[in-house]
TrEMBL record:
<comment type="similarity">
    <text>Belongs to the dTDP-4-dehydrorhamnose 3,5-epimerase family.</text>
</comment>
<keyword id="KW-0413">Isomerase</keyword>
<dbReference type="InterPro" id="IPR014710">
    <property type="entry name" value="RmlC-like_jellyroll"/>
</dbReference>
<dbReference type="InterPro" id="IPR000888">
    <property type="entry name" value="RmlC-like"/>
</dbReference>
<dbReference type="Pfam" id="PF00908">
    <property type="entry name" value="dTDP_sugar_isom"/>
</dbReference>
<protein>
    <submittedName>
        <fullName>dTDP-4-dehydrorhamnose 3,5-epimerase</fullName>
    </submittedName>
</protein>
<dbReference type="InterPro" id="IPR011051">
    <property type="entry name" value="RmlC_Cupin_sf"/>
</dbReference>
Length: 183
């Protein structure tokens, strides 16, 4: 497994395993505490694993947590997704930086999203399973959502949106969220 820094987002990484394929399919390690530790992250900090299943065109996000934030490892375990990370940490050298990834079940690559960054994705295949490893128990009172189509962010979503939650559909603009969190 190899860890690579994401230049657009300070403190973000992509962890790329080496799948071993044969006539039966493939096998690969999707989490390695030593590799996580090698980039300065505490592998024991992660306390919750979750998975979502989406169909082609479904968009989830852009989500983040208020308060101490939430760091997470995100991986598409089956299918393919267009994954987005936006740096919303005011003192970060990459503040308002955006990074885009295509995550796929074939590669099992994982993106580390630092606390204070917004995250979202769109399913590119008929079925896409997305796995999350999160560093804090979920508290719905801390959920923050930003409009997926905010013109300031200009995220190039690859497909028309076929479905999204009401919360995501009614999300405020980035400017409104920043005004609320900074003021």
């Amino acid at each position: 497994m190899k860890a690579t820094e994401v230049p657009e987002i300070a403190g973000a990484y992509v962890f790329a395993p080496t799948p071993y394929a044969d006539e039966r399919g493939f096998f690969c390690r999707t989490f390695d505490a030593d590799v996580v530790r090698s980039v300065g992250l505490d592998p024991c900090a992660f306390v919750q694993d979750s998975v979502s299943r989406s169909v082609r065109g479904v968009l989830r996000g852009l989500h983040l947590r208020s308060g101490a934030g939430e760091a997470k490892l995100v991986r598409c375990s089956y299918g393919r997704i267009f994954d987005v990370v936006v740096d919303l940490r005011p003192h970060s050298p990459t503040y308002l930086g955006r990074a885009f990834f295509e995550l796929a079940g074939e590669t099992q690559a994982t993106v580390y999203v630092p606390a204070g960054c917004a995250h979202g994705f769109q399913a590119l295949t008929d079925t896409a399973d997305t796995s999350y490893r999160i560093d804090r128990p979920h508290d719905p009172a801390e959920d923050v959502t930003i409009a997926f189509d905010d013109p300031e962010l200009a995220i190039p979503w690859p497909l028309p949106v076929t479905s999204m939650s009401r919360r995501d559909r009614e999300a405020p603009s980035l400017a409104e969220v920043l005004k609320h969190t900074e003021g």
